[in-house]
Amino acid sequence: MPLPGPFDRYDAQLTTPGLVILEMVAEDRVDAARQLAQRLKDAGRVDDLDAFLADVASREHQLATGLPGGIGLPHARSEHVTRPSIAVGVAKYGHPLDFGAMDGPANVVLLIATPASSFSEHLEVLATLARSLSKQGFRESLRRANDADIIAELINSSLVFADH
Asked: How many CB atoms lie within 10 A of CB 20?
């Protein structure tokens, strides 16, 4: 039996297959964030889509959220998030998105949404996910998985087992 991970205290998983968009086609990073945030709203994890997106845009203006290896990581703490969540978009082949990374556009976008009051959890999610995303094998697994269940499992298990 695995040891408890840092995110076991959440009663729901941070992402679910319903929060994954496969073959995502977006005009730009703002459109990508809107598509992913809409999934969070539809799942009841965000209560005001436009207000949450304003928080994401505000964060994005502070510093680009592109990571090396084709990853976009827009994120925000917001009063409009009901529980910590991650929505995932895998860009359709030939439709990468510019998130400001030095090595080029993103093929995988992970929108991290945490409640405004959860500063430490927000940093914990970001740091843990960034550690997993720094591994080429993990990024490749996300890119190659063409199944929302597998992507959700990859993300959730990376967070649960990250510290062990």
From this structure: 23
* Residue where the block lists tokens 């080029």: 104
Tokens matching residue 120: 């430490």
From 3.90.1570.30, 3.40.930.10, 3.40.462.20, 3.40.50.2300, which CATH number describes the 17-160 domain?
3.40.930.10
Q: Which residues are catalytic?
A: 75
For 14-31, how does the pLDDT look when each residue is reduced to its tens digit (9 = 90+)? 999 999 999 999 999 999
* pLDDT (tens digit per residue) in 79-124: 999 999 999 999 999 999 999 989 999 999 999 999 999 888 888 8
Give the closest residue to 23 by CA, choosing from 151, 119, 159: 151
Torsion angle of the four alpha carbons 48, 49, 55, 58, in this order, in degrees rounded to the nearest 10: -150
